[in-house]
Specification:
Length: 205
């Protein structure tokens, strides 16, 4: 696949109150027209792109673009990111490294722990869960069935502060597909907890 187009953040961008930024590329052209191209993303702490802080593989394109929300909370400072196309047989060349700066303002920080409803909900293959943390703290986000049994742990470690997000692919802790139905997501952090319902419906085979 050809080199994707860097859409956002562009080189030199400053992201205020976005510790988990969304990285966006335009779709690349693949010489083999029958191949489906997905995208990989890399975020680094250094200009030479040797100290990786987060990564993603096989991100699909929607509407000619591929978007990935960095799945960790980045501290204030400078970061560099790159992306590439993957047609299932080989990777294309990576984009040139683009620098962005994360800045957090006190006014922009959440005031309380809050778990927002997943989007989409109900979902089939993947849903995004957004949550707010007022301070950096040990954080745990779990998925439970209606009997209270743990199905999956999505977050277990230090996160925050800021408005963050994580995705769930509808799989359980050992990689199996969960059954269609109702589940509960529970976020625990900073001595508080927050819960929301989620529905798995019509999963693709």
């Amino acid at each position: 696949p050809g080199v994707p187009e860097v859409v956002s953040p562009i080189d030199g961008a400053t992201l205020t109150d976005q510790p988990s930024p969304v990285l966006v590329v335009g779709g690349s052209v693949d010489p083999d027209s029958g191949d489906v191209v997905t995208y990989g993303f890399r975020a680094y702490r250094d200009r030479l792109c040797t100290d990786m802080v987060a990564s993603a593989e096989r991100v699909p394109a929607v509407g000619g673009r591929a978007e990935w929300c960095v799945d960790v909370s980045l501290a204030d400072g400078d970061y560099w990111w790159r992306a590439y196309g993957d047609d299932g047989k080989e990777w294309g060349l990576m984009t040139p490294a683009a620098r962005f700066t994360v800045e957090t303002s006190e006014e922009g920080l959440p005031r309380e722990v809050r778990l927002h409803g997943p989007s989409p909900n109900p979902f089939g293959n993947e849903t995004t869960i957004r949550y707010d943390l007022p301070t950096r703290s040990e954080t745990r986000l779990g998925v439970f069935d209606l009997m209270g049994r743990q199905v999956r742990v999505l977050i277990d470690g230090e996160r925050g502060p800021g408005r963050l997000s994580v995705t769930w692919d509808g799989r359980d802790g050992v990689g199996g597909r969960t059954a269609n139905g109702f589940y509960v997501m529970k976020l625990t952090s900073c001595g508080s907890s927050s819960s929301v319902p989620v529905v798995v419906l019509g999963r693709a085979r």
